[in-house]
From TrEMBL:
This is Branched-chain-amino-acid aminotransferase. Pathway: Amino-acid biosynthesis; L-leucine biosynthesis; L-leucine from 3-methyl-2-oxobutanoate: step 4/4; Amino-acid biosynthesis; L-valine biosynthesis; L-valine from pyruvate: step 4/4; Amino-acid biosynthesis; L-isoleucine biosynthesis; L-isoleucine from 2-oxobutanoate: step 4/4. InterPro entries: Aminotrans_IV, Aminotrans_IV_CS, Aminotransferase-like, B_amino_transII, BCAT-like_C, BCAT-like_N, BCAT_family. The keyword Glycoprotein does not apply. GO terms for molecular function: branched-chain-amino-acid transaminase activity. Belongs to the class-IV pyridoxal-phosphate-dependent aminotransferase family. It catalyses: L-leucine + 2-oxoglutarate = 4-methyl-2-oxopentanoate + L-glutamate; L-isoleucine + 2-oxoglutarate = (S)-3-methyl-2-oxopentanoate + L-glutamate; L-valine + 2-oxoglutarate = 3-methyl-2-oxobutanoate + L-glutamate. CDD domains: BCAT_beta_family (cd01557). Pfam families: Aminotran_4. It comes from Nesterenkonia alkaliphila.
């Protein structure tokens, strides 16, 4: 494959405008000037890697992504360090997960080096877009979708891979504070053999109605259960969940194929082990959560994900019943600070998780 071609934006955003946007980045509303693109065809494989101006994608109305949802995506963040470099966090894990999702959705695999290069090339041209406030970063969104114009149901023979970038602050908006979570009793997120452990748009589309119910009940996220197994907890609409006990344990649902293997999830598990906590990845029922909070054995609960970082869970709303927790507990706070410290270069990167992009 040839090297990435750089096609300059004809009228890039001025430094003043970028500075204005970075004052309050929000989440997912502003996009940098460029996008990285690689095309794929069954006959030719991956070709024509380029960085071009961010803008609308020309797409045939019969493109199979629009009809059958053959699509996958990733999320990772870029941080500016005091040495002037722009770093990202465990991108090899995202590359591996992208390929796992690609396999499940019958999309082509993308070589890890090409994935890393697409991030490096994009960040190199848009590096002035990285915000530096507490908990802020440049959110990178690689995605792959079926572009072939064909209405038969089979894997597409033409595919596009792209990366867009968006300056990001707190996913839930404003200052970090504990969130309220709605238990979805009407809808499940995934079932054995389904696509629950693939990062594909359909999983998120299916979470929107329950998420709407959550919002109508004053909650910011929805918690999905496994109705087949005693209402064991699974994951939130777009993040994994952890419970902290008063005897030094950290509990999280085990990976059974119905849960997304979060990069933040596995990093939290490692950091918790490093600080001497016992990590239990296993089935956790809603009854156990409820009883633990009532008896005081579960002292903290938090959500985690690339976008959410680590966000304390304040209340769990199950119909008329509210299971309260402690707000931002000590363990939640300590792991959040350590993780953000590693990501932003103020805490030693002892697991070699950082990768310099630019
Ligand atoms: C992420 O955390 O990066 C995700 O992809 C979740 C999404 C809900 C923003």
């Amino acid at each position: 494959m040839t090297a990435f071609q750089y096609i300059q934006h004809p009228s890039p955003t001025s430094e003043d405008q970028i500075a204005q946007i970075l004052k309050d980045p929000g989440f997912g509303t502003n996009f940098t000037d460029h996008t990285a693109v690689i095309d794929w065809t069954l006959d030719g494989g991956w070709a024509n890697p380029r960085v071009e101006a961010y803008g609308p994608i020309p797409l045939d109305p019969a493109a199979s992504v629009l009809h059958y949802g053959q699509e996958i995506f990733e999320g990772l963040k870029a941080y500016k360090h005091s040495d002037g470099g722009i770093y990202t966090f465990r991108p090899q894990a995202n590359a591996a997960r992208l390929n796992k999702s690609a396999h499940r959705m019958a999309l082509p695999a993308l070589d890890e080096n090409l994935f890393l290069e697409s991030l490096e090339q994009l960040v190199a041209v848009d590096k002035s877009w990285v915000p530096t406030g507490e908990g802020e970063a440049l959110y990178l969104r690689p995605f792959m979708f079926a572009t072939e114009a064909f209405l038969g149901v089979r894997p597409a023979q033409e595919v596009s891979y792209r990366v867009i970038a968006s300056p990001a602050g707190n996913y839930f908006g404003g200052e970090l504070k504990p969130v309220r979570i709605w238990v979805s009793r009407d809808y499940a997120r995934a079932a054995p053999g389904g696509t629950g452990d693939a990062k594909t748009g359909g999983n998120y589309a299916a979470s929107l109605l329950p998420q709407q119910q959550a919002a109508e009940n004053g909650c910011q996220q929805v918690l999905f259960l496994d109705p087949l197994h005693d209402n064991a907890i699974e994951e939130l609409g777009g993040m994994n969940v952890f419970l902290v006990t008063n005897d030094g344990r950290l509990l999280t649902p085990e990976l059974t194929g119905t849960i997304l293997e979060g990069v933040t999830r596995s990093s939290v598990i490692q950091l918790a082990k490093d600080r001497g906590l016992t990590v239990e990845e296993r089935r956790i029922t809603l009854d156990e959560w409820d009883a633990g909070v009532t008896e005081g054995t579960i002292t903290e609960v938090f959500a985690c994900g690339t976008a959410a970082v680590i966000t304390p869970i304040g209340e769990l709303v199950d119909g008329d019943k509210v299971i309260a927790s402690t707000g931002t507990g000590e363990v939640t706070q300590a792991i959040r600070e350590e993780l953000l410290g590693i990501q932003t270069g103020t805490v030693e990167d002892r697991h070699n998780w950082l990768h310099r992009l630019a």
